[in-house]
Amino acid sequence: MSRGIIIAGNESALLSAVEGEAARRGEQYAIASVPNRFSSGDGRPSVGAKAGTAESPPGRISLEWNPGRPISAHALVLAAENRLGTLGGAILVCEPPSGGQSAGDLNLADIEIMANDYIKGWLFLVKEIVTVYKERGKGSLALVYRETGDAADILGSAALAAFRSITRGVLAAPSDETCLAMGFSCADAGDETGFASFIFKQLEEAGQRGGGKLHKYGKSGFFK
């Protein structure tokens, strides 16, 4: 994969695994994580090593991102370009936390958070990344998510459905030589490391003809 990667997503085991794989491969990357701001969240700090600590990988650059603001998406991509020198790839990771509420008990603030952090934020960021690639000439965009079976989780299901739709829309767009877009999904929990390794392997092996595909990963060994 091209050097100069931005990794962005909500705090999760999957985001941590993707970052860990980037660090293991010696990639220079910038990371922006979004905490769980739902009222049912535990308020834990960002997943992964913090920039400036002994545990922080040498190539790691930590950046701030406020998903609900379009100016923040622009600033994030610009900062990643400036700090990395070039932006050759982007990996967007969606594993939304559970809202933990039934329809009648939905918190109005949580609905706003879901729309800002898990719908508007992704649209703003995808637009900025694709725009930069068109201006600079080329780049790769990986959209990564984990399928969940908890249909009763209204907020989490809505967030995942939005990201899935964005992924399909990006992949279905007319072929553009400036952006190699690939999708990655996984229905299994507990094999984040294997999934992350699979993502990077596919990105490394993909030529321009490898774009526009949704790759499904599973521990059973069947990949599509």
Notes on the structure:
The chain has helices at 13-24, 70-84, 108-136, 154-172, 192-205; strands at 5-10, 29-34, 60-62, 89-94, 140-146, 180-186, 213-217. It is α/β, with parallel strands linked by helices. It has a seven-stranded parallel sheet with strand order 3-2-1-4-5-6-7, with helices on both faces. Helix 2 (70-84) packs across helix 3 (108-136). The longest helix is centred in the middle third of the chain and has 29 residues, at 108-136.
Sequence-ordered SSE layout with sheet pairings:
Blueprint: E1 5-10, H1 13-24, E2 29-34, E3 60-62, H2 70-84, E4 89-94, H3 108-136, E5 140-146, H4 154-172, E6 180-186, H5 192-205, E7 213-217
Parallel strand pairs: 1-2, 1-4, 2-3, 4-5, 5-6, 6-7
Helix pairs in contact: 1-5, 2-3, 3-4
Core attributes:
single chain, 224 residues, alpha/beta, Rossmann fold, seven-stranded parallel β-sheet, 5 helices, 7 strands, 18% strand
Largest sheet: 7 strands, parallel
Query: Any idea what the shape is?
Result: globular
Class derived from helix and strand content: alpha/beta
> How many domains in all?
1
Q: Calculate the terminal CA-CA distance, rounded to whole Å.
A: 20 Å
Number of helices: 5
At the fourth CATH level, what is the homologous superfamily? NAD(P)-binding Rossmann-like Domain
> How are strands sequenced across the largest beta sheet?
3-2-1-4-5-6-7
State the total count of DSSP E strands. Answer: 7
The parts where pLDDT drops under 50 for at least 5 residues are 42-54
Name the average pLDDT. 85
Label the CATH architecture.
3-Layer(aba) Sandwich
State the name of the first-level CATH class: Alpha Beta
Q: How helix-rich are the residues, as a percent range? A: 25-40%
Strand content: 15-25%
Per the CATH scheme, the topology name is: Rossmann fold
H and E string: EHEEHEHEHEHE
